[in-house]
Amino acid sequence: MRNVYSKLALSFAVGAGLVFGAGGTAGTAHAVKKGGILNFVVGSKIPSYDLHRETTFGVIHPIRPFYSLLIRINPDNPSSPTDFICDLCEGAVPKGTDGYKTYTFNIRKGVKFHNGQPLTAHDIVATYQKIIFPKKGVPSARKAFFKMVDSVSASGDFKVVFKLKFPSGAFIPAVATPFNIVYSKADLDKNGFSWHKKNINGTGAFSFVQHQPGSFVEGKKYAGYHHKGKPYLDGYKAIAAPKMAVRLNAIRGDRASIEFRGFPPKARDDLVKALGDKITVQESDWNCVLMFTPNQARMRFADVRVKKALSLAVDRWGGSKYLSRIAIVKTVGGVVFPKHPLAATKAELVKLTGYSEDIKASRAQATKLLSEAGASGLKIDFLNRGVDQPYKVVGTWLVDQWKKVGLSAKQTVKPSGPFYDSLRKKSDFDVSIDFNCQSVINPIADVTKFLG
Question: Which of 45, 47, 110, 154 has its CA 20 to 30 A from that of 97?
Answer without folding.
Answer: 110
